[in-house]
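Hi support team,

I've been running sequence recovery on a batch of backbones for a student project. Most finish fine, but this one hangs at about 90% for roughly twenty minutes before it completes. I'm not sure whether the input is malformed or the queue is just slow. I've pasted the structure tokens below so you can try to reproduce it. Let me know if you need the job ID as well.

Thanks,
M.K.
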């Protein structure tokens, strides 16, 4: 049974966590690879008691998030200039920007073609 999202304050850091209740005897705290904190508690656990336990485990949670953050993909911000690649419908396409009227975007032969009146405006 899902209860929703909660937050606690630990020093200057806010820790957000999802709380679910289940048929358990103990409380479980896990940090997922996407850095989300997931808590599963026994059905009769008070949400304040869960928050207290999360606050107590905050140093461990932050350590886990820092460790997992190292493995997140580091993708540079995309620019809209000729030669840059962009994903569309799960595939990678090279961009070709040119001056043209009317302004339009076409996908032809594995390339994204953009015709724009202001070619120099990224």
């Amino acid at each position: 049974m899902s209860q929703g999202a909660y937050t606690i304050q630990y020093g200057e850091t806010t820790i957000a966590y999802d709380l679910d209740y289940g048929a358990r005897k103990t409380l479980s705290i896990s940090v997922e690879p996407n850095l989300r904190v997931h808590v599963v508690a026994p059905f009769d656990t008070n949400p304040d008691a869960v928050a207290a336990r999360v606050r107590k485990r905050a140093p461990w949670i932050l350590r886990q998030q820092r460790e997992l953050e190292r493995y997140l993909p580091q993708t540079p911000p995309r620019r809209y200039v000729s030669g840059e690649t962009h994903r569309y419908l799960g595939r990678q396409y090279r961009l070709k920007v040119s001056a043209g009227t009317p302004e339009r975007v076409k996908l032809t032969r594995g390339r994204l073609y953009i015709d724009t009146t202001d070619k120099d405006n990224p």
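--
Follow-up from support: It reproduced on our side and the slowdown came from queue contention, not your input. The first strand starts at residue 2 and ends at 10. No action needed from you.
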